[in-house]
Write a structure and sequence with these properties.
The protein is α+β, with helices and mostly antiparallel strands and about 90 residues long. It has a domain of about 55 residues: Orthogonal Bundle (Recoverin, domain 1), CATH 1.10.238. It has three helices and three strands; from the N terminus they run E-H-H-E-E-H. It has a three-stranded antiparallel beta sheet. A hairpin with a 2-residue loop joins strand 2 and strand 3. The longest helix has 13 residues.
Length: about 90
């Protein structure tokens, strides 16, 4: 789980990004992000309203920095094919 924040957090880095903005900036699919959140490998979203969530951009930036220093293990598979019947 991501705990450390970047050494210097700029005001624009501390804003909340929507799902749409997150998907534009992170090259992962929405289901993969959710699987990673559940596994504790991606920052959890913030519930803004009953129908809206967002991510604190500084937490996402900290996650990116952590991935640069410490990539996730290759054997972790967040894709849907893992549990698909007949998948290899």
């Amino acid at each position: 789980m991501v705990k450390a924040l970047p050494a210097k957090v700029e005001p624009q880095d501390d804003r909340i990004v929507t799902v749409e903005e997150l998907l534009e900036r992170i090259p992962l699919s929405y289901p993969t992000i959710w699987r990673m959140c559940r596994a504790g490998d991606f920052p959890k979203p913030i519930q803004l309203t009953p129908a809206r969530i967002g991510w604190q951009w500084s937490a996402v930036l900290a996650w990116i920095d952590e991935r640069k220093r410490n990539p996730l293990a290759a054997e972790k598979n967040y894709g849907w094919r893992k549990n698909r019947k007949g998948a290899k």
